[in-house]
Amino acid sequence: MSSLKERILGLLKSYKGSWIPQSHIHRALGVSKSRVSEILAELEKEGLVARRVVGRSKIVYVYPDIGEREVETVGKLIRVGLVFSSEYLFMSAFAKGLEASGYRVEVRVFNDGIKATRALAEGLVDISVSPLVGQLYLYPTYRTYRIILAGLWGGFRVLSLGRPGPIHSSAISTMDYARRVAVARGGLEADETRYYWSSDEVLKIKPGEGYVVTWHPIYLKLVEEGARVVYEPEELDVKFCCTLGVSTAVSNRARRAIARAYFNALETYAREPERGLEYYSSLTGINISTLKSATREYKVAEGLDIKLVRGILREYAPTIPARSIYEEAVETEALG
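and the corresponding structure tokens:
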């Protein structure tokens, strides 16, 4: 057996029974993509792994009987994905907690929640704080991450731009869920749904007609330009938003450290919501005065559990695949 094949097997033994992005393997071992692909083809013939292509990405399933061994996150670097918003006000405490556990932190800000979750699923980031709705939606396709049910809620608005017309929302997100709830209540004369794919697109929506569901700080700009608030989060009873997705390529030890740092950061935010705003401002470019206003809107979510997940799924998930597969995404081991 070649030494590289042994190294790949050693790495894969950490992830028995899991799907992982193929890109994680060549990145973890510092070898060429083509050589990794050749060896995975051998392992597939031997019945040790299975591979499939999702979009432009390749993912690998490691059969449970391949063995067991823990491999640490490469270089102790944790790549974090976020969505551009005022929501992740706890990031300073979270980053400090990870650094205290010996990890380096690299943050990437995406302009759309689905992009952030896809980056997690495809191995471009190790963890992603992104909309729970999107994390659940993509899970059956990839199965390369788990969800820690904790985060903040609040901060969005359903706005009227003027006369009745289309309702604009981000897709497969908390905004999309809120759109569904708002329209179902019958208080909006929306004749169709139009999706935007970045925060910049929201600000280009033609004023004077229709509705917009969007988040802080984007909704502030629309209100300044004359948009009227129709619904706030409490009125729609949407008391969840983004949760923490963790790649299955992250070791158990790192996963526990991430979960511990994350919960501690949320507790710190609950006590001192304005702590670390300078750090978050440097990540996003959102000015500190705007972030201070966000601390009055975003609260630590309570009651995020399987019951909530099932309620969300009833709103939009098909019955093929069976809804039970989405529940597999919820992390439990790292919380023990």
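(Above: one complete record from the training split.) The chain is about 40% helix and 25% strand.
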